[in-house]
Specification:
CATH superfamily of the largest domain: Cytochrome c-like domain
Bound molecules: heme C
Order of helices and strands: HHHHHH
CATH architecture of the largest domain: Orthogonal Bundle
CATH topology of the largest domain: Cytochrome Bc1 Complex, Chain D, domain 2
Mean pLDDT: 79
Shape: elongated
Number of domains: 2
Oligomer: single chain
Radius of gyration: 24 Å
Number of strands: 0
Low-confidence stretches: 34-41, 142-155
Amino acid sequence: MKRRSTQQAPSVISTAGRLSALVLVAGLLATLTVARASDPGMSGFELRGVADAGAPLFQQHCADCHGTRGTGDGRQGAAFGLVLRDFTAVEADAERYYLATRDGGMAVGLSAAMPMFRHTLSDDEIRDVVAYLVQLAPRGPRGKSTAPSPQDDQR
Ligand code: HEC
């Protein structure tokens, strides 16, 4: 009897030790994930989105406000009494667009009428739809007619 209990003790300790090691690792991973999530605020933001994949997402989730061509003339957009930006007429800022789409307009100092999509779309989908927006921006003399490849969206 006595023997069994002394044998048990170390194994309980090592289980506890293993558990706390697991908790530690999980904590570290969580910290790393949080650090990664805030990375776009630092230099070296990479959009890595695919504009072609973002196009249908834009029609589904954004066109009501931003217009089917991204020019800011969506039916709902007018209801806010705001002039929505014409994505085909301004220089794109991939990081800013990404943050606005993920965290909502207030994240970039704009109206809260711009909803956050981090609970609606996956991070990849957000990057795709933003790549689509970036692609709408004028490039070259005839603007979007230069049809950039998705790689062009990485800055
Ligand atoms: C309910 C209406 C609504 C919907 C839906 C909506 N937006 Fe917006 N969005 C706004 C408003 C209002 C603003 C702030 C005014 C502006 O900058 O045009 C805004 C601003 C933005 C901006 C910031 C533009 C800048 O000046 O930097 C981006 C980027 C953007 N929206 C992307 C999207 C994307 C992508 C979707 C779909 C996934 C979407 N929006 C869906 C209303 C909407």
